[in-house]
Amino acid sequence: MSSVPRLFIDAALSSGEKVALNDNQANYILRVMRLGEGAPVRVFNGQDGEWIAAVVRESGKRASILPERQSRPQVETPDLTLFFAPLKKARTDFVVEKACELGVRRIQPVMTERTQSSRVRRDRLQSVVIEAAEQTERMDVPEVFDDVPLISALEDWPAGKPLYYCDEAGDARPMREVLSEASDTPAGILIGPEGGFSTKERDWLRKILHIQPVTLGPRILRAETAVVAALTLWQSCVGDWQEHPYLPETENG
Length: 253
Hints:
Helix content is about 30%, strand content about 25%. The chain is an alpha/beta fold.
């Protein structure tokens, strides 16, 4: 892999247009990586592709980058939304990090009757996915939304857009079997809390025709394991796992 640092920049990128780094990014570039004037960095913003840029040292602890050339055009990840019930802090961080690595476009925390966490810090979770996107060569950063009640999150979900909800009880079909009949259309995946959905929630979900109950095998999985398993199945069956991985440029070109 390339040793050239990679940063998400929340600004437009074009040749010769200098962009200021925030304090954390400047500290990382100047003090952690110890890069000097003109050193190369790779930058992306989710819209303008990936660019090779040069470090510009400003006064004090400040720094900027100067985009020089586009090294990769913009590509989109599959249109997949993850709905999940927040867990305790470290496990929630794990869920959103792995969701980013596995190519989710949107992450929506939902509050259920058995949700373990009473609040979600959206700003912290957005920082988690930015770091994951930088490390995994994603060209975009998934959007993390504020937590909302389960019914509020799903009541406006389009009727023609499949949503697979993982249900360990009842007559749900294996997820791989269901996905073998699916196409690469926009979709959603819903993972419940530890202990599963309540009877009331399960009854409500099963009354909605475009929400399809699926199982993830004969064992009861922890919520964060279920997220990884479900996203892996979806990506391998109808996602972008048929694409080749991107190999970044080396320092020698």
